[in-house]
């Protein structure tokens, strides 16, 4: 079944500027600038003159003659733009805890040659192998203050922060052992925004 016309709207806060050109969305706010290329998704963007009841600028995302799957992409695009706006206004913070039973995990944070931060994990399950994880662009890592065995990943891009956390978690997967017994690793314990604290 084809849907003749479907639309979603995104409200943009006062202190945020959104620029859309040939489906490349740039969002600029107090914390910085983020860009996302949505040129592979067949949607139409428009900036109507009228604002919502709070005086916020609106962005309309429309699709004509779309199938059910095409209409589903509308909500995805809306969520992506909402995440970009949240990123440049409040930022994202993930907290990761080290879990170990016997061998204490050692984590060092260092800068790579290209200025991007790296996380170095040693003594995981007593192994001599040193694991290195490169952070995504714009993501910073630091040990938590006052909390033992915890690191905090912060950044403006939700994709960057969450992918960096996933990379750290996945490099510490336990292989060739019963994972119900060997629960060691680095796991995300808390997700939130930087400015909510």
From TrEMBL:
Annotated Pfam families: Ribosomal_L6
Give all residue intervals belonging to the Large ribosomal subunit protein uL6 alpha-beta domain.
Answer: 12-91, 103-185
GO MF terms listed in the record are: rRNA binding; structural constituent of ribosome
Q: Which InterPro entries match?
A: Ribosomal_uL6-like (IPR000702), Ribosomal_uL6-like_a/b-dom_sf (IPR036789), Ribosomal_uL6_a/b-dom (IPR020040), Ribosomal_uL6_CS2 (IPR002359)
UniProt keyword annotations, A-Z: Ribonucleoprotein, Ribosomal protein
What family does the database annotate? Belongs to the universal ribosomal protein uL6 family.
The molecule here is called 60S ribosomal protein L9B
Q: Which species is the source of this protein?
A: Lithohypha guttulata
